[in-house]
Amino acid sequence: MVVFAHPDDETGCSGTIASWIKEGTKILFVVCTNGDKGTENPEMTTQEMAKIREREMRNAAKSLGIQEIVFLGYPDGELEDTRYFRGQVVKEIRRFRPETVLCQDTLSRSTHNHRDHRIAGMVTLDALFPYARDPLHFKELTKEGLKPHKVGTVLCWGAKEPTDYVDIGSVIELKAKSMLCHRSQFVDRPSIDANHQPVELMKQTATMFGEKSGFRYAEAFRKIEFRT
To answer: How many CB atoms within 10 Å of residue 215?
Structure first.
């Protein structure tokens, strides 16, 4: 199960996703916001932008082989750490019952992190422990038949100090293909120039992580394991 703030944020771990799907892993995407403010065009409406971002997200997911997406639909830039939001994530954890959850780290590697990224990561980690695990948290979900579920492993991407690396050499082009499905973010933005091509920057980052882990291309994560 992969939880992330905006349509296109999954590109931070899409190589890992693609490689796991090739091995037969079933994966659920939970997209927290509709990305309705992700544009440099002041004439664009939030309603139209949300439609564009959802369409792009579905195309990117299809290219990776994702069969199920949950859109929570929060406005871009307005995620808050609330009981309701946490409960939505708990619901998907208990329904899907994943062994591993991937989410955004609450701290970026070297720069200021988008607030939605921090909130999405924090709410996901809190939902995992203890709220999804304990039956008396969100009793209404337990009564609905969504029994408690304990996730064993969490992988946080964008971590300041990664602990684990995943080899994505065999799927680097698929990662690039899925990334370019988000045209509004990685193709059509006026600020993109010859010196800042998103796919090349992505490959540079993957190469950097590969050099640290002995692979040609890699993705990096901070790994958290919960006791059984």
So the answer is: 17
